[in-house]
Amino acid sequence: MTYQNFSLKRLQEMDAAHHLHPFTDHRDLRAAGSRIITRADGPFIYDSEGNEILDGMAGLWCVNVGYGRDELAEAAYAQLKELPFYNSFFRCTTPTPVLLAERLAAIAPDGVNQVFYGSSGSEANDTALRLVRHYWALEGNPQKRIVISRNWAYHGSTITGASLGGMAAMHGQLNGPVPDIRHVMPPYAFELAEQGESDEAFGLRAAKAVEDAILEAGAENVAAFIGEPVMGAGGVKIAPDSYWPEIQRICRKHDVLLMLDEVITGYGRTGQWFAAQTFGLEPDTITTAKALTSGYQPLSALLVGDRIASTLVDKGGEFFHGYTYSGHPVACAVALANLDIIEREGLIERVREETGPYLNKALKEALSGHGIVGEVRSIGLMGAIEIVRDKESRERFSNAGSAGVAVRDHAIANGMMLRAVGDTMILSPPLIWTKETIDMACERIGKALDLAEAGLRKAG
Ligand SMILES: Cc1ncc(COP(=O)(O)O)c(C=O)c1O
């Protein structure tokens, strides 16, 4: 039976009756009814009414090679027929996770050569936290357990992910986070820089907050610092240039491991395979998922640096951790085909040399002068637009978040899928976007801003 046998209304009724969506106020959803996306092609998604929408979010930060790739469907089909599943426990494995691990080691930053698989970014961060603490225990420093993270960080939605993350609303529902995780200010100059403070000075101050937290806890008790190289779900917060080199220096000085969460930035988004390479960092772990398969299959890979891996191998004994679907053969087959496409089509070079710089320029030229835009920023193919009532003072509209929702709703109605994080609009499109697609996006976003401004100013 296929969904075409059902009317939109009936699908919405069944959805409301039985389907609890992620990150959703279920009463609101039931009142409004869900939007049902039925197909997609290239950079566009289509809803059940046949509306074509330019997907500015690559699904959910993942569909880097765009939609409708037969090659990925065929890779999955071939693997499903040959061997749909076998596990990687009990000294077994299947070929595709092996091939993929070797491939990932080749593209990862120097000194990162091992892979631990899961199905989601949240699972991979669970693996990362366990591995890092296990590492210090094996090294004879079991008290080195504290992890420093940042407010507004997003590291997933399992209890570990939400604890590592810095989302206050999620913490509120945790009923007790994983212990020994501390949060400091993020490098978010738009809201946190002081009057007259340069970007450079602000970046150093935000990094110093990490060092202060290490000193307060006692470096002998701190296992790691974890951060997204560019904070994604928290609102595409891009650190000033001074921030990451200073974080690397601080971690080295205090012998604190550097855990990068590249679930969004991995696989090309910032114009290198990994943002660690964009920023010249030497991480001990790199959490990846999403664009590893361009979302065509659920798969995550925690990339593990040599320092941790050699201790695990030499001193570890059994590491009591893993998932049924660690190294799922079909997901790994799709990942291999996906990396082929990224490489063959030169998508990363295109982001680095052409579309990334063009997006930056186009956002500035087309949108930064708009009456309700306080700032535009981007790196590679991810960007943000800050919505404000007053451009000069950066005062927001009252009722936080309502301006973001207004812009988003007008954008979608005008064929542009954008996401709002509070009053920050965020953009993270497929890497197949061209200059023409970027122009189309800017035009549609501009229209949404005009319509939203009219409504917001009228509402006061
Ligand atoms: C940086 C980051 N880490 C972890 C996750 C969690 O990934 P998943 O939703 O696959 O569990 C996300 C999801 O958006 C993310 O953006």
Write the layout of secondary structure elements.
Elements: H1 8-18, H2 26-32, E1 37-41, E2 44-47, E3 52-55, H3 58-61, H4 70-82, H5 95-107, E4 112-118, H6 121-138, E5 146-150, H7 159-164, H8 168-172, E6 181-184, H9 189-192, H10 199-217, E7 222-227, E8 230-231, E9 237-238, H11 243-253, E10 257-261, H12 275-278, E11 285-288, E12 300-305, H13 306-315, H14 329-344, H15 347-367, E13 373-379, E14 382-387, H16 402-413, E15 416-417, E16 419-421, E17 424-427, H17 435-459
Parallel strand pairs: 3-15, 5-6, 5-7, 7-10, 10-11
Antiparallel strand pairs: 1-2, 2-3, 4-12, 8-9, 11-12, 13-14, 14-17, 16-17
The chain binds pyridoxal-5'-phosphate.
Index terms:
460 residues, alpha/beta, Aspartate Aminotransferase, domain 1, Aspartate Aminotransferase, domain 2, 2 domains, seven-stranded mixed sheet, four-stranded mixed sheet, 17 strands, binds pyridoxal-5'-phosphate
Low-confidence stretches: none
**Helix-strand category:** alpha/beta
Strand order within the widest beta sheet: 4-12-11-10-7-5-6
Level-1 CATH class name of the largest domain: Alpha Beta
Q: What is the number of strand segments?
A: 17
Strand content: 15-25%
User: Can you count the helices?
Assistant: 17
Q: Which bin fits the share of residues in helices? A: 40-55%
Distance between the termini: 50 Å
**CATH topology descriptor of the largest domain:** Aspartate Aminotransferase, domain 2
